[in-house]
Design brief:
49% helix, globular, two-stranded antiparallel sheet, mainly alpha
Length: 508
């Protein structure tokens, strides 16, 4: 696939990064997508742990990095790192393999949460089996889903192994609740009901497999290790797979990974989830099937090759030819603001080399990275708000965290962001983020409304701003000789507050 136009290149960057910066799409025109993709895969991984430490040192206060420090470090990586594709895929993975600092036991372990983020980055183009195993022995996940310290059952006391991780590794991290065909659709029983992938007995048996694992360090930075004394060494049976008596815990863990990797529902379930997080909320069955086939075999007989899966997701013909009904997704509130900052060349104030911002973003967006309120993420994959979405048998997961108060917060934030950058500050504040709107001001100063619309279209709408929005901007601009900055504030606000910006869709 070759980028044959600005719109094509810009849409690719809109999906594969945290948002295109000015000039990036132009560079891609006439370049092969595979070249860009391979260059991104080859880039060194930007470490969130290292950036978190830089932020901590720069701030010069506190005994240990805080949640605020980690989130600021995440923003710094999203704004400026070169390995955009890896970071974007890791963000998608973080909403499938959910761990969160909302857990009280993780709230004060910002470096450990950043390290978990790095784990997802490291595996973004690796094998699903390796990712699943490293997630399973992650001390953060062990703490979050209570696998850490899980002991074998004791008939005398009535103690039973904790079933939390056993349930979620199947329900959320691999096979899903119900059996799926390769195209992602559910198999139905004779009564038209979805067929469960596993039973309560499977959960109980898998919980026995996951006994004996415990922390290897107090900072939750090192993978968990198994204490053989606490591990259930009895024979087990999970999903029809036999685990012989006296098998070491590490071998049982490996057998579970193989079992889940090759389960027929894993490929469509995981691929459907990744597609939803990267390109569209309502992928066609054919789209899911094509990607799932790549998951099963990357062309060289390898199952679970995430690099091949990501390539298949981004290059599927549906992404560039399907109608907006099936090829669209609401931007996550958090990602909306990140993309605005990137499009407007964000810089920290007062010449600082690190990004500082307070957690007003969290209130504005109803979300932040690795801060989900539960293991089910910020929103459910099948959420369908009442009205046109539900009536058309579609879903719009992101709208589950968008209510009127959030809309007001976001609109006020965007308006205030532009206003802040139009103020004549002799000494910009280090704790603020500043965007560059000078080109927009120059166009308005020259009374070039068409140039302003074109620039806005290229920065935020992949060069394909819908005609109704263009007309709205023309209608609101009367050409009077007012302060150009005021016009920029009004007109950019109208564009960025519009649903056209907050919904990513194929407008080709």
């Amino acid at each position: 696939m070759q980028f044959d136009s600005f719109a094509h290149a810009s849409r690719w960057l809109d999906l594969a990064t945290f948002g295109p910066k000015k000039g990036e799409a132009n560079i891609l025109i006439n370049k092969r997508a595979k070249t860009w993709f391979d260059e991104q895969v080859a880039l060194p991984t930007t470490s969130h742990v290292e950036q978190c430490q830089k932020q901590f040192v720069a701030q010069g206060y506190g005994k240990r990095p805080s949640k605020s420090t980690r989130v600021r470090a995440w923003l710094d990586v999203a704004f400026y790192s070169k390995d955009q594709l890896r970071q974007r895929v890791a963000y998608a993975l973080s909403q499938i393999f959910v761990a969160s600092d909302q857990d009280p036991n993780l709230a004060n372990h910002a470096p450990a949460i950043a390290n978990y983020n790095d784990l997802l980055c490291q595996h973004a183009f690796g094998n699903f089996r390796d990712l699943l195993k490293d997630v399973s022995v992650s001390p953060v996940m062990g703490q979050y889903l209570s696998m850490v310290g899980n002991k074998k059952g004791d008939p005398a006391s009535g103690r039973r192994p904790d079933e939390n991780y056993a349930r979620e590794i199947m329900q959320l991290f691999s096979i899903g609740l119900y059996e799926r065909d390769l195209d992602g659709t559910y198999y139905l029983d004779g009564n038209g009901k979805p067929i469960p992938c596993y039973t309560e007995k499977d959960i109980q048996e898998l919980a026995r497999v996951f006994t004996g694992w415990n922390h290897a360090d107090a900072d939750l930075m090192v993978p968990m290790v198994n204490n053989a004394v606490d591990h259930d060494r009895g024979e087990k049976s999970v999903l029809g797979h036999r685990f012989p008596k006296d098998m070491p815990a590490e071998q049982e863990m490996d057998q579970v990974m193989d079992m889940l990797l090759h389960h027929p529902s894993t490929a469509p379930n995981i691929c459907h989830g990744l597609i939803q997080r990267m390109t569209t909320s309502n992928p066609s069955p054919d789209y899911v099937r094509r990607v799932a086939e790549v998951f099963l075999d990357n062309g060289m007989g390898v199952t679970g090759d995430l690099k091949a899966v990501v390539w298949a997701i981004l290059t599927d013909p549906d992404v560039y030819t399907a109608t907006p009904t099936t090829m669209s997704k609401v931007r996550e509130p958090w990602l909306s603001l990140v993309s605005i900052y990137r499009a407007l060349d964000v810089k920290p104030g007062a010449g600082s080399t690190v990004v500082e911002t307070d957690l007003v973003y969290l209130k504005t967006c109803n979300q932040y990275p690795l801060g989900s309120p539960s293991v089910f993420n910020f929103f459910l994959p099948d959420y369908a708000p009442k009205g046109v979405v539900k009536e058309n048998n579609l879903v719009a997961p992101e709208l589950q965290i968008v209510d009127w108060s959030h809309i007001i917060y976001v609109h006020n934030f965007i308006y205030g962001l532009i206003r802040l950058n139009l103020q004549k500050l002799s000494a910009p504040l280090a704790k603020e983020l500043y965007i560059n709107v000078e080109e927009f001001k120059s166009l308005i100063a020259a009374k070039n409304i068409e140039g302003f619309i074109q620039e806005t279209s290229e920065r935020f709408f992949n060069g394909a701003m819908p005609t109704p929005l263009k007309q709205e901007l023309r209608k609101h601009y009367n050409g009077m000789d007012l302060n150009p900055g005021k016009w920029v504030q009004r007109l950019l606000f109208i564009a960025l507050a519009s649903p056209y910006f907050h919904v990513q869709e194929n407008r080709a």
